[in-house]
Amino acid sequence: MTAKKVALAYSGGLDTSIIIPWLKENYQCEVVAVCGDIGQGEDELKGLEAKARKTGASEVHIADMREEFVTEYLWRLVRAGAVYEHKYLLGTSVARPLLAKKQVEVALATGCDAVAHGCTGKGNDQVRFELTYKALAPHLNVIAPWREWNIVSREDAIEYAAKHNVPISQTTTKIYSRDRNIWHISHEGGALEDPANAAPDEIWMLTCSPKDAPDKPAEVTIGFEKGRPVSVNGKRAASAVKLLEELNKIGGEHGIGRIDLVENRFVGMKSRGCYETPGGTLIVQAHRELEALTLDRNTLHYKQKLSLDYAEMVYNGLWFTPLREALDAFFEATSQTTTGEVTLRLYKGNLEPVSRKSPYSLYSLNIASFTMGAEYDQKDAQGFINLIGLPIRVRAQAAKQGQ
User: What is the DSSP string of 120-172?
Assistant: First the structure.
């Protein structure tokens, strides 16, 4: 395969930093570095353009995509109730299609004939990036250096960077692989590779240790409109980004949002990662409590089934597909009444609901109260139970006669 001009998904991390000189060396091509600001923080973005150009990029495109990421991707996750394997709030998974979309847009605008990424041949991200390429620009060639070069470890990558004068922050003694955005940060590699090892205290970056969290509980109220978060403690947020940043701060201070997960990768292997999602954990929990108030039983239970499918689709990189769009239409319909406020109590890493309010609440105190009232005739329960229990009774009688 040949390539004259390649758009590289660039983060400035170890892998993508060495890919620029590697592409120029092995393909004799121009390299266009494409980076999306999705809330990874000033430290990661500072000096990114200069670094990319210094290592050989002919063009650098950095786009502020934070608001789009929150409103068009994260809020869809929240609305869907999507959680992968009981724990993971899909922070890395949901970001990849957006980044790949921007990469394709830049590639087409700048006349690139190929796209490249720094994902390994063992991970999920290669699937997420490349399925997006196939959906949006199937004619572009795809270069995946980790599937071509003879670098087989992060130690090898560090050595390659040193030989080619590529500045990096990773060392052989600090080998954790991290991915950060406004929703979460993931930690993999190093001591975490062995699931028998406890997660070292030093890995956590967004949340304080629960044991060091304030000794006094705190309460936070999150307001929703049609399934989307809009306010914190009664104050409407200036933007979705500002709202999430505020909840990240509150959750982080109280040790909220840490998980340690052995997960099933799409490529077939198990892996272990630690994730911090402070604000997202608050939002997901509050949204769940509000839906318990506003959705009828059949809709709620059916939505729970589809939430699992949606989470798996996002995890597997199937964002730009008709099925994901169809599921989103269902979740949009079921969210029309998901409006109201939920108050949560935070204490040393723990969450509990305090208050749930909605103008669309289906909870009737007159019916649910233990005080007997006219709106519910308890005698109706006898016929209901008899009908539901009819096949059970017939089966029991048949079994008795057959003895």
Answer: -TTSSHHHHHHHHHHHH-TTSEEE-GGGTSS--SHHHHHHHHHHTT---S-BT
Closest Cα partner for 36 from 152, 164, 239, 182?
Answer: 182
d(CA 179, CA 191): 17
The pLDDT of residue 402: 80
Domain residue ranges in the chain:
5-174, 180-357
| Whole-angstrom distance, CA of residue 343 vs CA of residue 252 | 17
Candidate list 17, 93, 177, 271, residue with the active-site label: 177
Q: Is 215 a catalytic residue?
A: no
Q: Rounded to whole angstroms, how far apart are CA atoms 364 and 357? A: 12
How many degrees, rounded to 5, is the angle at CA 401 between CA 399 and CA 403?
A: 75
- Identify whether the C-beta of residue 132 lies closer than 8 Å to the C-beta of residue 104: yes
Tokens matching residue 117: 């990424």
Task: Give the Cα separation of 174 and 179 in Å (integer).
Answer: 15
* Level-2 CATH architecture, domain 180-357: Alpha-Beta Complex (3.90)
- Strand segments (E) across 185-248: 185-188, 218-225, 228-232, 235-236
Segment 131-146, tens digit of pLDDT: 999 999 999 999 999 9
Query: Is 335 considered catalytic here?
Result: no
Give the per-residue pLDDT at 369.
67
- Residue at 222: amino acid letter: I
* The pLDDT value given to residue 236: 98
Query: Which residue in 96, 128, 154, 228 is the catalytic one?
Result: 96
pLDDT for residue 373:
64
Give the active site residue among 17, 66, 79, 125: 125
- Does the 5-174 domain belong in CATH 3.30.1360.30? no
Is 212 one of the catalytic residues? Answer: no
Give dist(CA 344, CA 257) in Å, integer: 14
Residue 374: the pLDDT is: 67
Given a cut of 50, the residues of the chain with pLDDT beneath it are none
pTM of the model: 0.93
| pLDDT confidence of residue 347 | 98
pLDDT of residue 176: 85
Is 296 a residue of the active site? no
Catalytic residue among 15, 66, 128, 356: 15
Q: Calculate Rg over the CA atoms of the chain.
A: 25
